[in-house]
Write a structure and sequence with these properties.
With about 350 residues, this protein is α/β, with parallel strands linked by helices. The chain has 14 helices and ten strands. α13 links the parallel β8 and β9.
């Protein structure tokens, strides 16, 4: 089964009897960006479980070393449990999850010596219980074009995620259009254009500063007219405390609904794991403004804050479709609750 099929549970089929889309980047492709994209390998030698464990190693080492320090040659008492709770909260697992794990560890073990490995197993088990219900493959509908609005703050990895998903879609035979609606930054337009050129997807873009909602409207018309299966819409990094930017995102949604009342058919929120607790407020705001339908979490390999995914899953119950642990295209993989739970707990 292809990687796209595992991340996205398909409900539509690629366009038939149509030539592949010609690469169509708008404007001059920046040489540095093109070279960077060409240099990104599309495969890695290690299996995904090993890659995930490696990617979460910073989070795992920070968490498990503290657990070992707490429980080695020490009986479980109120002070021990309080220290454990502090460690779990500091790992960005969230207060609710920390309380849940502490209660599970305390059950029938009070005033006993507890092996640190036993605590790690409990940690993995309790995390898995929270994550398993949200480990849901993305589902395409029958709409054509199927519009995927991608939102998140600047630097979260939105454009790169679009490029990776677009590459997987094109490789599976889908006709893809990319819309560069992050018109605030010339670099974002250029980056999406470079991805379009690389993967063979049409890119709809305008000059920096152009009206993003108008561009989204034109992109939908273009994708519909040429028979595109999927329309990915990149958006500006709308900080949750900037009402004007959030208002523009709302305008994009309203403009799309004028052409298809059901559009956007999916709203993917890309979260950067390195932002820790800030990701919680981002999830709250984007869900309220744009109606987020699912999450992709990136940069788990660059932080000791990987536990934030657990906190977000427990609080918002939003589907987590994929996670990223590197720059390669296949470093974006379907979210596996069991593998993630064992990796962050440092279990083989």
């Amino acid at each position: 089964m292809s990687l796209l099929k595992r991340i996205f549970n398909r409900g539509l089929e690629p366009a038939e009897d149509e030539p592949a889309a010609e690469p169509q980047a708008v404007g001059a492709e920046p040489a540095a960006e093109a070279q960077a994209l060409q240099a990104v390998p599309t495969a890695h030698p290690a299996g995904w479980a090993s890659r995930l464990k490696e990617g979460l190693s910073k989070s795992s080492r920070s968490l498990t070393s503290s657990i070992s320090a707490i429980f080695t040659k020490r009986k479980l008492d109120a002070a021990t449990l309080e220290e454990l709770e502090d460690v779990l909260i500091q790992a960005d697992l969230g207060v609710e999850m920390a309380n849940r794990i502490v209660k599970a560890v305390a059950k029938d073990r009070y005033d006993r010596n507890v092996d640190p490995d036993e605590v790690k197993r409990i940690l993995a088990s309790e995390i898995a219980k929270v994550l398993e219900p949200v480990a849901v493959p993305f589902r395409f509908g029958s709409e054509k074009p199927f519009v995927i609005l991608v939102v998140g703050v600047n630097g979260s990895g939105k454009t790169t995620t679009i490029g990776k998903l677009g590459a997987l879609a094109v490789g599976d035979g889908f006709k893809v259009t990319l819309a560069a609606c992050d018109t605030f930054r010339a670099a974002a337009i250029e980056q999406l254009a470079a991805w379009g050129s690389r993967i063979g997807a049409k890119v709809i873009a305008r000059e920096p500063g152009a009206d993003a909602a108008g561009l989204a409207f034109d992109a939908f018309k273009s994708a519909a007219s040429d028979g595109s299966d999927i329309l990915f819409i990149d958006t500006a990094g709308r900080l949750q405390n900037k009402a004007s930017l959030m208002a523009e995102l709302d305008k994009i949604v309203r403009v799309l609904k004028k052409q298809d009342p059901r559009a956007p058919h999916a709203v993917l929120l890309v979260l950067d794991a390195t932002t820790g607790q800030n990701a919680v407020s981002q999830a709250e705001t984007f869900t309220r403004v744009a109606g987020v339908t699912g999450i992709v979490m990136t940069k788990l390999d660059g932080t000791a804050r990987g536990g934030i995914l657990v906190a977000i899953a427990g609080r918002f119950k939003l589907p987590v479709h994929a996670v990223g642990v590197g720059e390669r295209i296949d470093d974006l993989q379907p979210f596996d609750a069991s593998a993630f739970s064992r990796a962050i707990a440092g279990l083989d």
